[in-house]
Every structure is written in C-alpha cells, then in structure tokens.
Write a structure and sequence with these properties.
This protein has 256 residues and is α/β, with parallel strands linked by helices. It is 42% helix and 16% strand. The longest helix is centred in the C-terminal third of the chain and has 19 residues. It is globular.
Length: 256
C-alpha cells in the first residue's frame, strides 16, 4: 500500500487540529498501520500528547537539504505503531526560504517516508505560512476541524480559498472536508452557525460532528486516546471520535 499523507489545516487556532491528528494516529496504530506524525505547529501540542513516540528527528529537519535524512533515521528502526517527528523552534527559519524551495524539500522527505510508513499525518500552524503551504503541497489529503464560532467560520472561508489556490500546484490534493468540532446544541449561535456552514459548503462539511466534551481534552492532556478514559462520560466522545477516524481513513483509502 502506498503511504497516504493527510494535513490538518485551518487559519485559526484552537479548532481541534491536534485533537484530530492525535486520535487519527492512535486509531491508525491500533488498526496495525504504521503512522508517522509530523508536528509543524509551533505550539507543539501534538508533540506533547505523542511525546512517548518521538523518534529523535525534528520537524525543521524535514526542510533540510539532506538526501539521506529519512534513510538514516528509519532504515534500521522498528517503525510499527506511531512515530513522532517532533516540533522545534527552528521551524521559524523556514519562513526565510522561498516557498517553492521549502515545499520541494518537505515533499522530497515525505516521499522518502513512504518506504517505512502507511500513513503520514501533518499538524500545521494556525496561520498561512511557508510551513502550512509546504504541508499542503506535500499532502494527498487535507481536512479542517472548525468550531462553530464567527471567527472560526471566517478562518474556514480563508482556508477554502487557500486550498483552491494551492491545488493549482498540487492538483492531486483532495479536501476530505470540514469537521464541526466542540459543537454545543444548547448554544443557539452554534446551531445557527452549523446551519450557515452546511448551507454555504454543503458536501464539504462532514456528515457528523464532535460535541463539546471534557473527556477529549482530558485524554490529550494525559497523552492517551479518549477511549482509554475510564469514565462513563467518555463513551459518547469515543463513539464520535471513532466515527470521524473511520470516515477519514475510508476517504484516504487506507482501510476498507
């Protein structure tokens, strides 16, 4: 099976990119997939949650002009389960590069990862940059978690435009869709904004949502998936997360 690469991207922080990335990684690993996570977000939340799976390679090195970089790290390593390529402060230097050069370097290393992994997940910064654009130019798929708040919807509108523009340079990039996240049906503006989102984007919105649940944040803080939280309250969250991971992996064609 050829490795499939998914970027999580939206031009707004706090939307659930890290939650989605980490749970896709956890679920992929329990399905027996070899999953590599590249944390390109300067906040490094995915690197915190997946810290136990760090391999010693840093995300900024994925932009180095080192042809044998991936080979040297992974050729003699057991790459089963989850492998984390940790975020680091040197990612800020990528903005000094020409976008085409940055994207070419990242894409070359991502392609090299395909020898060792089945799925590559990229967590991106919450703003348009060389780093985010390079991730989208290196990915096969992109998805966008979005909260049902006015600023979030504005960020989603910008993200759709960015994806459309970058598909000219990466025509194989497929938009899996928007994931409504932290949805609270008791908040009228959430209900109204959900209707606005589905009306404006129709099939681009995933046909389910993730509700506002403390157990998800608790799981990420404890560096475990939500299905390992031993509380009754975590059951509904687990069901919602598993619907999401099943849907995304089917769209990526890494499971049947």
């Amino acid at each position: 099976m050829k490795m499939k690469t998914l970027a999580n991207a939206i031009q707004k922080g706090g939307q659930g990119k890290t939650m989605t990335t980490c749970h896709l990684a956890f679920d992929g690993a329990r399905r027996g997939l070899r999953v590599v996570v590249i944390d390109l977000d300067p906040q490094g939340n995915a690197s915190y949650t997946l810290e136990a799976h760090a391999c010693g390679l840093f995300a900024s090195q994925m932009f180095d002009d080192s042809p044998d970089l991936v080979l040297s790290f992974f050729a003699d390593r057991d790459n089963s389960g989850i492998t984390l390529i940790h975020n680091d402060d040197r990612l800020a230097n990528i903005e000094k590069l020409d976008l085409e050069d940055a994207a070419t370097l990242l894409r070359t290393h991502v392609e090299a990862l395909s020898q060792y992994f089945d799925v590559c997940l990229i967590d991106t910064p919450p703003f348009l940059s060389n780093v985010m654009a390079s991730a989208l130019l290196s990915a096969d798929f992109v998805m966008s978690p979005v909260e049902l708040e006015p600023y979030s919807l504005q960020g989603m509108e910008k993200m759709v435009a960015v994806i459309q523009n970058l598909r000219e340079a990466n025509p194989t990039l497929q938009f899996i869709g928007m994931l409504p996240n932290r949805y609270n049906v008791k908040i009228p503006r959430h209900v109204e904004n959900m209707a606005i989102l589905r009306d404006a984007y129709a099939d681009l919105v995933m046909p389910f949502d993730i509700r506002q649940r403390d157990s998800i944040a608790e799981a990420l803080g404890n560096q475990i998936p939500v299905w390992e939280i031993k509380k009754t309250a975590a059951r509904d969250a687990t069901k919602e997360i598993c619907v999401m991971t099943q849907y995304v992996f089917e769209k990526m064609e890494v499971i049947q």
